[in-house]
Design brief:
This protein has 2 domains: 127 residues, 2,3-Dihydroxybiphenyl 1,2-Dioxygenase, domain 1, CATH 3.10.180.10; 114 residues, 2,3-Dihydroxybiphenyl 1,2-Dioxygenase, domain 1 (Roll), CATH 3.10.180. The chain has 6 helices and 16 strands. β3 and β4 form a beta hairpin.
C-alpha cells in the first residue's frame, strides 16, 4: 500500500485506531480501476512504487485526495486461499506492540510486521474470529487534513460482520480504544452496535454478529456517492451485482451492497435515493 503522500503522516493522537487506507486486491487491477472509477468516480494512477513483491501499485483518488489503493493478490496470499477483496488499514503508534497485543487478545498475525521503504510499517492480521485487517504506522510527516467525511469517493462507513458481535466489540475496543455508541435491535438479526472514539460525538462504524448465510466474518466498507439509484445502475452497467438494497438507514441515508466483477464485496452510501 502507499498513501505516504496523503494519508497518515499526522500526529498519532488524532489517528490512533482509525482506518487510514483501503486496498483492493484481485486479479485484474486495470479492469477493477475502470469499474470503480465508473461507479464511485475515482481517478486511477500508477503510484510509481511497487508492493512488497515488486508489482505496480495503483492509487485511487477522490479529487486530489488519495482514497484507496489497488494491487494484484500476492502469490503467497493466493496460495493460502485469498480471493478478491477490500481490506482496511488501521493506524497504530507501534505496529509490533499492537501485533503482540492483538495476539494476546486472541487475534492472529498472518504476515509479521514488515517495512515498506519510504512508506511505513504494516502487519496483516485477523481478529479472533478471522476477519482480516491491517495494522499500519507510516514513516513520519504531516499531510494536509483529509476532506470532510461525507465527501464523494471517501469511505463513509465501516461495518464488521463479526463471528460474535459482543466479543468482537470487546476485542476491538481493547485494541484501539473504540467506544460504544447507540445500539439498534434488529430482531432476528441481532444487535447492531455503533462505535466511535472515546470523547468523540460522532459514529465511526458499526458491527453485528454475521448472519448464518454469511460465509465468514469480514469488514465491509461503504464508499460515498451522490445518489444511490444512479450509482446502483452504474454497478450493473459495468458487470457488478447489487446483492442488497437500495435501503434507507437511520439518519436518512441510503445504501446498497454489491459485488464487483471479480466478486469482491463493497457497499455504497448516499444522502439521497
Amino acid at each position: 500500500m502507499s498513501e505516504a503522500n496523503t494519508m497518515s503522516k499526522a500526529p498519532t493522537t488524532s489517528l490512533q485506531g482509525k482506518f487510514v487506507w483501503y486496498e483492493w486486491m484481485g486479479e485484474n487491477v486495470k479492469a477493477a480501476a475502470d469499474f470503480y472509477g465508473h461507479v464511485v468516480g475515482w481517478k486511477a494512477k500508477d503510484s510509481g512504487m511497487s508492493d512488497t513483491s515488486g508489482r505496480p501499485y495503483t492509487i485511487l483518488s477522490a479529487g486530489d485526495y488519495g482514497a484507496a489503493g489497488m494491487m494484484t493478490i500476492p502469490a503467497e496470499a493466493k496460495a493460502m486461499g485469498a480471493r478478491p477483496c477490500w481490506t482496511g488499514y488501521v493506524w497504530v503508534e507501534d505496529v509490533d506492540k499492537a501485533a503482540a497485543k492483538l495476539i494476546a487478545a486472541g487475534g492472529a498475525v498472518k504476515r509479521a510486521p514488515s517495512d515498506i521503504p519510504g512508506v511505513g510499517r504494516f502487519a496483516v492480521v485477523t481478529d479472533p474470529h478471522g476477519a482480516f485487517f491491517m495494522l499500519f504506522r507510516d514513516a513520519g510527516g504531516n499531510p494536509p487534513p483529509p476532506p470532510a467525511p461525507d465527501t464523494p469517493g471517501l469511505v463513509g462507513w465501516r461495518e464488521l460482520h463479526a463471528g460474535d458481535g459482543a466479543a468482537a466489540f470487546a476485542f476491538y475496543s481493547g485494541l484501539f480504544g473504540w467506544a460504544k455508541r447507540n445500539a439498534m435491535d434488529m430482531g432476528a438479526m441481532g444487535v447492531y452496535q455503533l462505535f466511535g472514539f472515546a470523547g468523540g460525538d460522532s459514529d465511526y462504524g458499526g458491527m453485528m454478529t454475521r448472519t448464518p448465510q454469511t460465509p465468514g466474518p469480514f469488514w465491509l466498507y461503504y464508499f460515498n456517492v451522490p445518489a444511490i439509484d444512479a450509482a446502483g445502475e452504474r454497478v450493473k452497467a459495468k458487470g457488478g451485482k447489487i446483492i442488497n438494497g437500495p435501503m434507507e438507514v437511520p439518519g436518512g441515508q441510503w445504501i446498497v451492497q454489491g459485488l464487483d466483477p471479480e466478486g469482491a464485496m463493497f457497499a455504497l452510501l448516499a444522502p439521497k435515493r
